[in-house]
Design goal:
The protein is mostly beta strands and 113 residues long. The protein has no helices and 11 strands. Strands 2, 4, 5, 6, 9, 10 and 11 form a 7-stranded mixed β-sheet that branches. It has a 4-stranded antiparallel β-sheet with strand order 1-3-8-7, with no helix packed on it. It starts with a strand and ends with a strand.
């Protein structure tokens, strides 16, 4: 299984961060599979943001739930993270992840004004 993140590396405060993960080697609609977004920063360490299941159901960390949306495009085998109203505290390396064993390479997102 391979995962690849894509999206802008720079976002301005109050805007929406949008990252897409393209999956190969597995179908995101396979029963029982969950596809996650995780971020890492020096200040907060590793932080689970949320995931989307094979049925399209989603779960989010309470800390970010009000600003987070994860959705998918099954025709492209992709899932997308949107994080709204970003602040500099959202600056981090963002990873897409499968079963905590498979990681994308990570993409640095910096929130700056």
């Amino acid at each position: 299984v391979q995962l690849q993140e894509s999206g802008p590396g720079l976002v301005k405060p109050s805007q929406t961060l949008s990252l897409t993960c393209t999956v190969s080697g597995a179908s995101i609609t396979t029963d029982g599979y969950y596809w996650a977004w995780i971020r890492q920063s020096p200040a907060k360490g590793l932080e689970w943001i949320g995931d989307i299941g094979s049925s399209g159901s989603t779960s989010y960390t309470p800390l970010l739930k009000s600003r987070t949306s994860i959705y998918r495009d099954t025709s492209k085998n992709q899932f997308t993270l949107e994080l709204s109203s970003v602040t500099p505290e959202d600056t981090a390396v963002y990873y897409c992840n499968f079963r905590f064993n498979y990681w994308g390479q990570g993409t640095q997102v910096t929130v700056y004004s």
